[in-house]
């Protein structure tokens, strides 16, 4: 993930509430990056804080082999929002681990090893997920990574079809590439990915770690394409900052519980945070809000003079600028108290909490207009 540090004037954050972060000098910032899409329901949402407090007093941890109500409730909530057929819920502690599980399960279920991933894709930084990640910079010096991964151009149905064969265990894709520059896949591409994996008997894995849980205006970014994957991974916005991720898996790929696991996965405390976060997303209509406010923000961004292109859906938007994005991000933060993120060298990435309003969108556009001049 691309870091962003202000060398001369670091911003030291002390507290957060809703879409705002406050630094040690009392300056308030509008967090239009949701701290890497994590603060999906805003910072310090009272319902999440309360759930964590109550759980902390009751039970911080017990080994995963004992069923605990709060963890079972989270599984059920995830099952309820999972795409059709993905009824098996595996919990883990981070995005990259959710993808490791996905890759392991696909290999085990198919008895094959080849994984097809996309150029510009990002899937995490542990040895397997890193092999699926595209950018050389992330991989240099860490080899050999997990083997038998190939990369093909993104959003190119024919290139994907040509790469998938009887030796393919899985295709792993982001429906909208996040780190790769906010690049949405066409419906035709996702449909073709579904077709060719089904024909070859390979698993289709959608990495919705950044795009999932309502961010794009639908629960899952792939939903409008009208297809379902065999495996779906979710993380960033799930636990309001507590380390929790999930791998949602179709029956034919599901593993026996003894075949994979991790000591901390789905611990009571993170399960409480995730359960409360999912409840807020539902009760406050945040999927719909992401669609409405995101659509408004996108149309306002498209009116700006400076950008080459505005891409994305809902509250996952990329503004492609002519020169380096980091300079603009610094001005946004220091002169306008708006925190956004880069996605590659030339893209300003906006992925605010799903609770933002049109007023926050207007503030951001007004600041960007000045910064891009
Ligand atoms: C952030 C991200 C990951 C990795 O998640 P971590 O929690 O940082 O390991 C994987 N895939 C996508 C699409 C991501 O955005």
UniProtKB/TrEMBL annotation:
* PROSITE patterns in alphabetical order: AA_TRANSFER_CLASS_3 (PS00600)
SUPFAM superfamilies assigned to the protein according to its UniProt record, in alphabetical order: PLP-dependent transferases
Q: Name one Pfam family in it.
A: Aminotran_3
State which pathway it belongs to: Amino-acid biosynthesis; L-arginine biosynthesis; Amino-acid biosynthesis; L-lysine biosynthesis via AAA pathway; L-lysine from L-alpha-aminoadipate (Thermus route): step 4/5
What subcellular compartments does it reside in?
Cytoplasm
Cofactor binding remark: Binds 1 pyridoxal phosphate per subunit.
GO MF, any single term = transaminase activity
Q: Which UniProt keywords apply?
A: Amino-acid biosynthesis, Aminotransferase, Arginine biosynthesis, Cytoplasm, Lysine biosynthesis, Pyridoxal phosphate, Transferase
Task: State any GO BP term from the record.
Answer: lysine biosynthetic process via aminoadipic acid
Q: Tell me the function of this protein.
A: Involved in both the arginine and lysine biosynthetic pathways.
- Know the name of this protein? Putative [LysW]-aminoadipate semialdehyde/glutamate semialdehyde transaminase
